[in-house]
Amino acid sequence: MANPEPLNVSDLQRQFPALDQQVHGHRLVYLDSAATTQKPQSVLEAVDSVYRKDCANVHRGVHTLSERATARYEEVRKIATRFLGTEDSQEIVFTRGVTESMNLLANTLSGLVGGFKEGDEVLITELEHHANIVPWQLLSQSTGIRVKVLPCDDACELVLDDLDKLVTEKTRIVSVGHVSNAIGTMNDIDRIFSAARGVGAITILDAAQSAPHMDISPKKIDCDFLTFSGHKTYGPTGAGILWGKRELLDQMPPWQGGGDMIRTVSFEESTYAETPWKFEAGTPDIAAVIGLGAALEFLDSTGRPSVEAHEAELLRMIESHLMEMEGVQIVGKPATRACCVSFTLDGIHPHDAATIMDQNGVAIRAGHHCAMPLMKRLGLPATIRASVGVHNDQSDVEALIQSIQAVREIFA
Amino acid sequence: MSSMRELYQEMIIDHSRSPRNHGKLQSANLEARGNNPLCGDEIDMQVLRSEDGVLSEIGFEATACAICTASASILTETLKGKAENEARGIFESFHSTVTGESSAAYPPELMKLEVFTGVKDYPSRVKCATLPWHTLMQALEEKSEEASTE
To answer: Does residue A56 form part of some domain?
Structure first.
């Protein structure tokens, strides 16, 4: 493959108004995109214009504002379809984000497979975010389905040799994160999902930490469902995407009842709207969805192969600096890394480090990253995580390293 | 960086590295566990309360940041040998100082607690300083549920 166009990072930086500020007297160095990304001007303008000009409910009024709001809202399904490289925009369900998507699936997949029975299994991995753990535990409590876990090794790579043992006739669902939010491991999804397909299991990709960084087309990654959060993809909080194969979505029952998801309602019985509207009960976060459309266009116009190459270089830079520093332990050594680098400092708790780094203008995340089972496996209460976005550059990496040195001076 | 030196004063660094009264107190008759679910700090506190209500021994074990560990360590030094009622009063004044509710100076015998005053400027870290104290109170109340900063 030809090298992608290099990103014009200084131009991109100018598109993020929030980056143009000082924190404790230092230039803001934002290395917490895995928690939420900053928002480009085009997204801010899209959201602002909804409330300034097109503020109306969708799918209801015949008045001009409602027509405009509905058209802009529905247009985002087409944008998301282009973003995913798929064809049918009715395969795009708007949710609040990955957490809600997972809960939707956990609540409706039973209808797809004719009900779960005691002894059925859902397979997740040791690298998962709580959003891909807890909904399945809730499902387990209500149906008796068992949650099985594909382990990871000390490098934080999934132990794929265990697939043969863990993917069996009992496996009904395989739900896996594409990229680990805590470590940055990029998982061999093809191998995991091909094992899942071998036993007829439903495949779900949590693309929360890959959608902002790379091409995640279901044409390339064969799966039944895929979900990502808008706010980690340069969009507003409150909107995300669940993509699913049309024939599967069509067979699934609605999960939340209310306005907008119905066709007719009487006190005896209601009939439901078709896919995807039957999954969207109540007034949605219209502005957030429209903002998400602007965010996906922003990412598409930036060019995801270029984003991927640029960020991979930044992560390599961070990793090699950290490896040169004494008293720094990088957590995990994945063969392919995206999104972030996680590390610890000898004798210094990540929260103390985070406070001091913030004092130097450097925003990173310290904590368990909503992956407590993984932290337990690693024997760590917390790590420091530096995650990258399109606007980061070498000077950010240098600021990160200097802020770590400042931490070490305080604790010297 | 001067504000960071103020937050991470030498006494805090020292107590976090060499916490006093660290290790499980075998003779304890009261104990409680505290945790901060947001950051994962965990602390176990044990107390030997004598029949006349004096906290004659206090011990703790913690997996926590420097501020939390130092706070636990200084707590044990400050409250050991104090009557329970007096300890509760000290908890109140410590709590209102680190949360910024009160700017009253500590009496001379409690001046050590002064090193945590800077914490009030870091809202996300206030809980680190108060967790050991809440946990101790939980032990004194003989409550079985974990103390939490939430």
So the answer is: yes
How does pLDDT run across A20-72, given as a tens digit for each residue? 999 999 999 999 999 999 999 999 999 999 999 999 999 887 899 999 999 99
Question: Is A370 known to be catalytic?
Answer: yes
- Domain residue limits at A123: 44-301
CATH code, domain carrying A200: 3.40.640.10
C-beta atoms of B65 and A352 within 8 A = yes
Burial A343-381 (b: 16+ CB within 10 A, else e): bbbeebbbbbbbbbbbbbbbbbbbbbbbbbbbbebbebb
Among the three residues A301, A320, A335, which one is the final residue of a domain in this structure? A301
* Contact call for B39 and A359, based on CB within 8 A: no
Chain B residues within 8 A (CB-CB) of chain A?
Answer: 1, 3-5, 7-8, 13, 17, 38-42, 63-67, 122, 124-125, 128
The answer, for A26 touching chain B at a CB cutoff of 8 Å, is no
Residue-range domains of chain B with CATH = 2-143 (3.90.1010.10)
pLDDT band for B145, please (50, 70, 90 cuts).
Answer: confident
Digit-coded pLDDT (tens) for A179-233: 999 999 999 999 999 999 999 999 999 999 999 999 999 999 999 999 999 999 9
Instruction: Answer whether residue A243 shows pLDDT above 90.
Output: yes
* Average confidence (pLDDT) over A165-190: 98
**Is pLDDT of B142 > 90?**
no
* pLDDT band, very low/low/confident/very high, at B30 (cuts 50, 70, 90): very high
Question: Could you tell me if A131 and A26 lie in one domain?
Answer: no
CATH number at residue A329: 3.90.1150.10
Considering the domain architecture, whether residues A221 and A270 belong to the same structural domain is answered as: yes
Do A330 and A357 fall within a single domain? yes
Q: Does the structure show a pLDDT above 70 at B32?
A: yes
Nearest CB to A367: which of B3, B17, B39?
B39
- Inter-chain CB pairs, A–B, below 8 Å: 53
Shortest CA distance to A58 belongs to which of A229, A261, A241?
Answer: A261
| Peptide bond connecting A276 to the previous residue in cis, omega within 30 degrees of 0 | yes
Question: What pLDDT, on a 0 to 100 scale, did the predictor assign at position B49?
Answer: 96
A1 found inside a domain: no
Distance of CA A18 to the CA centre of its chain: 21
Contact B66 A381 (CB under 8 A): no
Q: Which residues of chain B neighbour A351 with C-beta distances below 8 Å?
A: 39, 41, 65, 67, 125, 128
Domain count, chain A: 2
Interface of A with B in 223-282 (CB under 8 A): none
- Both structure tokens of A38: 């900053």
Residue of A349, A368, A378 to mutate, interface with B, max B Cβ within 10 Å: A349
Is the CB of residue A375 less than 8 Å away from at least one CB of chain B? yes
Rg over alpha carbons for chain B, rounded to the nearest Å, is 14
Is pLDDT above 90 for A340? Answer: yes
Of A355, A381, A410, Cβ closest to residue B125: A355
Do residues A96 and A207 share a domain?
yes
Output the six-digit token pair for A316.
């390599």
Give the H or E element holding residue A290. Answer: helix A286-302
State the pairing for strand pair A29-30/B55-63.
unpaired
